[in-house]
Design goal:
alpha+beta; Beta-lactamase; 6-stranded mixed β-sheet; 17 helices; binds zinc ion
Length: about 475
Amino acid sequence: MRKNTNSKRTIRREIYVVAVLFALVFIAMIIYLARYVQVGSRDFIYNSYNSRFSVFADDVTRGSIYTADGHVIAKTSLDSERNQVREYPDERLFCHSVGYVGKGMAGLEAEYSFDLLKSHITLSEQINNSLTGQRSPGDDLYTTFDYDTQKAAFEGLGMFDGAVIAIEPETGKVVAMVSKPDYDPNTIATYWDDITDETKNNSALLNRAIAGAYPPGSTFKIVTTIAYLRDNDGDDSFSYKCNGSMAVDDYTIHCSGRKSHGTEDLLKAFSNSCNSAYAYIGVNLDLDKYNKTAEDLLFNTKLPTDLGSTKKSKFSLSDESSKSLIAQTAIGQGDTTVSPLHMCMLVSAIANGGELMEPYMADKIVSVEGDVVSEHEPVSYGTIMSDEEVELLNQYMEAVVMDGTADSVDFGDLNVYGKTGTAEYTTNKSVTHSWFVGYATDENGNKLAIAVIMEGAGYGSKYAAPLAAKVFNAYFE
Ligand SMILES: [Zn+2]
């Protein structure tokens, strides 16, 4: 009897020990699984040794990518052997922003691969899918792009190399972004050698909108104008008599078409895009302050955005710089280079009362059931121009469109504020890039900022400004 009780006790103790051990193993497994899901799987998906998994997972169908207005711009379907195939229905239209999978990954496809391969359907459905050998649907990515605006920019650029970028000033949402030459992401693997052939020198993979390094031409007069205002405590009193050229040491700066603009105030010098007046302004600026202004306006700085591999814009003048270089720099020639994105950010800040919103193109991750998994909130970089500077620039940029260099461009019913540019980029002064930067507002106060560059096209007023008008109208329609 006693012996019996003892053995029962021993058995109970053994059961207890086994139960505790099971519980510990179970907890350890939960921790391991949670770690795998939270951290491990991201490392796993991005591990370069798992190139197949980095594109397609066995248990999840890669999610789709959409424009803000619901057009599918990247999706996965199954081929006859039930292999996953990534498709881009609009071919080249979004190639530089969405990127590709198929020859490694690039663009949003690379940056959001983890999210596209993650499924937020219920756990029981996921388990059911894996037991029945079906893939769970991955989450979808909604971008900030507007389909019609993107299309207008893409078609408007036509056969020209160059870039268009359009941003919503109040939020930093990138509404359109086009770069040419381009490529078809559907066939990237097939034509890879051709696309990356350096002897052909067309760098189709390069996103010129964010990574181009262009001479800004007269669009840079926006920066020189702000430098002038900062040199003069915000006072825009100015008078200059233009007779069509200005000699600086042994170099002569000419006004466009060798036109004499006569006596001008700052507004007239800006809206006429008078090179002589701006060369005169340049050589009289305090160079330390000029550099400081350029740096406050994000030159020589990594741009505050996660759009991809952006190019730093370049500006530098020193006491060693010749007077002729300073004069050329003031009108956007010289050694200065900019990206279209940077110019778009500057006019976007003007449109937004001086406050710069950081540009972004990935808006939200949404589960296949429509639940928002994560969403990008607009981020302010801060105020880069004073109220007074913004007010004056608005007057000057409006004058460009009303009775300045862009007065022949039909912008429809929109109020447009802009600056044209015609940028020399070789010693042949007759070959020029065509620029337009600015913004438009409609009757409801909605705004869109834009930068357009058409390589080798000619006058900004003749090519880039009419393209900007098309993009504005597609957006506000
Ligand atoms: Zn002039």
